[in-house]
Protein backbone atom coordinates (compact mmCIF):
# COMPACT_ATOMS: atom_id res chain seq x y z
CA UNK A 1 0.00 0.00 0.00
CA UNK A 2 1.56 3.28 -1.06
CA UNK A 3 0.81 6.55 0.67
CA UNK A 4 1.09 9.49 -1.72
CA UNK A 5 0.20 12.01 0.99
CA UNK A 6 2.90 13.90 2.88
CA UNK A 7 4.47 11.80 5.62
CA UNK A 8 3.22 12.18 9.19
CA UNK A 9 6.42 10.87 10.74
CA UNK A 10 10.01 10.36 9.68
CA UNK A 11 10.80 8.65 6.40
CA UNK A 12 13.22 5.79 7.04
CA UNK A 13 14.56 2.91 5.02
CA UNK A 14 14.16 -0.70 6.18
CA UNK A 15 17.41 -0.80 8.16
CA UNK A 16 16.71 2.51 9.88
CA UNK A 17 13.14 1.41 10.69
CA UNK A 18 14.37 -1.84 12.21
CA UNK A 19 16.75 0.11 14.48
CA UNK A 20 14.09 2.68 15.33
CA UNK A 21 11.51 0.07 16.36
CA UNK A 22 14.01 -2.45 17.76
CA UNK A 23 12.87 -5.26 15.46
CA UNK A 24 14.61 -7.42 12.88
CA UNK A 25 14.61 -6.46 9.20
CA UNK A 26 12.94 -9.79 8.46
CA UNK A 27 10.12 -8.80 10.83
CA UNK A 28 9.60 -5.64 8.78
CA UNK A 29 9.40 -7.83 5.66
CA UNK A 30 6.74 -9.98 7.38
CA UNK A 31 4.79 -6.89 8.44
CA UNK A 32 4.86 -5.51 4.89
CA UNK A 33 3.53 -8.83 3.55
CA UNK A 34 0.77 -8.63 6.20
CA UNK A 35 -0.20 -5.13 5.05
CA UNK A 36 2.02 -2.59 6.78
CA UNK A 37 2.09 0.58 4.64
CA UNK A 38 5.13 1.45 2.55
CA UNK A 39 5.46 5.18 1.84
CA UNK A 40 7.58 4.68 -1.31
CA UNK A 41 8.36 1.28 -2.78
CA UNK A 42 12.02 0.96 -3.76
CA UNK A 43 13.11 -0.30 -7.15
CA UNK A 44 15.91 -2.52 -5.88
CA UNK A 45 19.41 -2.16 -4.56
CA UNK A 46 20.44 1.49 -4.36
CA UNK A 47 16.80 2.64 -4.25
CA UNK A 48 15.44 1.44 -0.89
CA UNK A 49 11.80 1.55 0.10
CA UNK A 50 10.80 4.31 2.50
CA UNK A 51 8.54 3.90 5.49
CA UNK A 52 6.60 6.62 7.34
CA UNK A 53 7.28 5.91 11.02
CA UNK A 54 3.92 7.28 12.18
CA UNK A 55 1.94 5.18 9.70
CA UNK A 56 3.97 2.06 10.47
CA UNK A 57 3.62 2.50 14.23
CA UNK A 58 -0.15 2.94 13.92
CA UNK A 59 -0.35 -0.16 11.76
CA UNK A 60 1.77 -2.25 14.16
CA UNK A 61 -0.32 -1.16 17.14
CA UNK A 62 -3.60 -2.03 15.44
CA UNK A 63 -2.20 -5.28 13.99
CA UNK A 64 -0.95 -6.45 17.38
CA UNK A 65 -4.34 -5.69 18.98
CA UNK A 66 -6.07 -7.61 16.19
CA UNK A 67 -3.79 -10.64 16.60
CA UNK A 68 -4.42 -11.04 20.32
Automatic annotation (TrEMBL):
Q: Which InterPro entries match?
A: DNA-bd_dom_put_sf, WH-like_DNA-bd_sf
Xref: Gene3D superfamilies: Winged helix-like DNA-binding domain superfamily/Winged helix DNA-binding domain
Output this protein's name.
Answer: Phage DNA packaging protein Nu1
User: Which species is the source of this protein?
Assistant: Desulforhopalus singaporensis
